[in-house]
Design brief:
about 100 residues; globular; YaeB-like fold; alpha+beta
Amino acid sequence: MTIYFTPTAQKKLELIWNYLKVEFGEKAAHTFQEKTSKFLNTVSEFPEIGISEVPEKNIRSYLITSKTRVFYRIKGSRILILTFFDVRQNPLKKPR
């Protein structure tokens, strides 16, 4: 399956990576990048690996790290990465 990112997801991914690099160093940012890449490879092979968050909109999520969850949607043979979400936020801000 082909993976696409929304502009929001791309922006949040960059923000998380930059934050980790500045606050925790290059190694932490690299570790996050590796975990994200591993998730993308896995979800391209097994798109339904994440939990169903909004079944009627086919929105699923997957916990990449203990603090970061990615939300995505399966559309035919494409996977659309919707956003990255810090799980410490108010849960009402999750995609619906």
